[in-house]
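Run log // design_07
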């Protein structure tokens, strides 16, 4: 399998990294590994904070793997694939430890969902965003609740209905997706280091309770996100989606 998910722990900071050669796309096995690591790290006594990052330079995360989308042949398989995004979002939201994301480059589709599911997102000016789902015949159904939770309904509508338009990191910061935006990756990394040290100096029980406050109102997502996965799983089998995905694959 191409790509990887790895983590390291240093002074109670767990750094979780993922990579895929196709612009950090998210095939099912990477989604599964991300969710499993977040769930496990959240329960470890030697971990007080999780930093989520991707490797590579041009793209933080390109979202769903087109190869896996093309391979979906029935609604149940489709639901299973999109449920991978649901599990990662729920793992991040439900993790008893804070999750801080460093978004160093552009984020598309599910990549925007990862940024939104973090408790705090640090970005660079290169971290432009786009929800591309409508262009391939589906919609940002699974990630929709967490993106809307972060940026509000109006901004979510704009992203959803303009799948071919990039929004700048500044735009995303003004609407609350990113909490900090820096001119360079080096500055973002330096801030992450200092911010992590500061967070790890606080009462961990207080942070856990504060995180519960951050996510109040999301208690019903366990059912909602998997229901949305079923919607995407059916739509990806539509003639529109099949034609669009095939044409995209031909171009690449």
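design_07 sequence
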């Amino acid at each position: 399998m191409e790509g990887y998910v790895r983590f390291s722990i240093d002074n109670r900071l767990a750094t979780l990294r993922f990579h895929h050669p196709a612009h950090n796309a998210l095939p099912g096995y990477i989604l599964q590994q991300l969710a499993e690591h977040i769930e496990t790290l959240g329960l470890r006594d030697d971990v007080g904070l999780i930093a989520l990052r991707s490797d590579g330079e041009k793209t933080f995360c390109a979202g769903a793997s087109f190869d896996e989308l093309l391979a979906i042949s029935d609604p149940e398989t489709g639901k299973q694939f999109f449920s991978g995004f649901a599990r990662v979002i729920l793992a991040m939201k439900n993790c008893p430890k804070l999750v801080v994301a460093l978004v160093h480059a552009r984020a598309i589709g599910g990549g925007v969902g990862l940024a939104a599911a973090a408790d705090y997102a640090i970005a660079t000016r290169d971290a432009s965003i786009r929800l591309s789902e409508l262009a391939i015949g589906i919609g940002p159904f699974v990630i929709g609740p967490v993106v809307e939770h972060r940026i509000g309904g109006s901004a979510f509508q704009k992203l959803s209905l303009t799948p071919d338009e990039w929004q700048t990191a500044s735009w995303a910061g003004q609407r609350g997706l990113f909490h900090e935006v820096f001119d360079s990756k080096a500055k973002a990394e330096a801030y992450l280091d200092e911010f992590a040290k500061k967070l790890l100096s606080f009462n961990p029980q207080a942070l856990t309770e504060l995180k519960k406050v951050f996510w109040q109102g999301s208690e019903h997502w366990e059912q909602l996100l998997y229901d949305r996965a079923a919607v995407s799983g059916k739509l990806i089998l539509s003639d529109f989606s099949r034609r669009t995905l095939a044409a995209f694959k031909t171009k690449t």
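Residues 116 and 230 are 21 Å apart (CA to CA).
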